[in-house]
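[step 3/7] fold_predict: job queued, chain A
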Amino acid sequence: MSLIESWPGSAQRWERAKGSLGGGVSTGMRAQMKPHPLYFESGQGAHLRDVDGNTYTDYVLGWGPVIIGHAHPHLVATVTRQLPLGQTFGASHDLEYEIAERVLAAIPGMDRVLWSNTGTEADQTALRLARAATGRRRFVKFEGHYHGWSDAMLLGYRPDANGALDRPASRGQNPSALTDVTILPWNDAAAVRAVLTDPDQDIAAVFTEPVLCNSGVLEPAPGFLAELRAICDETGTLLVFDEVITGFRIAHGGGTERYGVTPDLAVLAKAIAGGFPLAALAGRGDLIDEVTRGVVHAGTYNGNPVVLAAAGATLDVLAEPGTYERFEDLGGTLADGFADAFRAAGRPVVTRNVGPVVQVVPGTSTAETFKDFTTADWDFYDRFTIELLRRGVFSLPGGRWYLSTAHTAADVERTVAAARDALDAL
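[step 4/7] structure written:
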């Protein structure tokens, strides 16, 4: 195997970009990529080509959205047909309700959709609706769960150097945001009940990822989501599923379908439009219709026709027979392959998958909680991802891997072989 020794074209471009872009990147997360941000010129299916002419099997997938692969022919054709018809109208068009109807048909118990552009926006809208509908102010979220980067929500996601979670996560973040949230350990229904039954807590909503994809790909404990539903019903609290990652990915109807628990509101984003910027808030009609009773939901780009055309094409591909069974098989094969490779190298690891989302937790034999995830050997993992990059595998920091409909069994086989070789090199 010919190894990539350096990425001079990307390094030069990054240095140039620092003169015009904050940090040299368009979003701070990309600056975390090791050894430095890469620059790409094209993508096709499950593969990318960088500016230095190297090709990679891609498991970043745009940090998740490229669920049907890069430049899928059906998506390209659909968007190409839409483009000559106009970019945006500042008014209504048929795709707004046509794609909304398809979303509602996929997710059990949902009556209405609000379109927006990012998961951060949709989560903020969910919180505003919950406050309006309940007359309460505060909300519950769980340790390690991510609901966007707004002041209100970027709390309890990653511990500081002292292990504390109850502090702002960003410089410049409003510290008073902490007064509006109670952060609880996940999978602890008793803790949730204690807070929600205390009237002084004034809880409008409980926000949760149905699978903790952002911090270990941890599934809910048996019965936990159902217990959340029951406690929320008993206390008049709204249950919000943040399905930015899980929606249309771990099942056609996301976590709601997979676990048989229906939230009051569901936030969708990454997988819904094949890489185009689209998010949605789906929910009960009486809640969504609060926007007709004084709750402001705005956005110049909401319901963009080009983006919704992309969403329709993406949903077409995801609705093909066998898609989710294949996701489960490929995800399991990749997770098992990583486990075998680490075992052969004599290194402890925990691997798992929920559909096409795979997690590798290095340096431990137990990774059942958020705390387990945070104390893994991530320094080693960073070195591992660089060795994989040298072998033509593009992956995320933090151990999460995404599969698309374009990945094949041969791609996974080559990736596992590259992992074995990388571990031997380390």
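[step 5/7] annotate
The CA atoms of residues 140 and 313 lie 36 Å apart.
The longest helix spans residues 323-344.
exit 0
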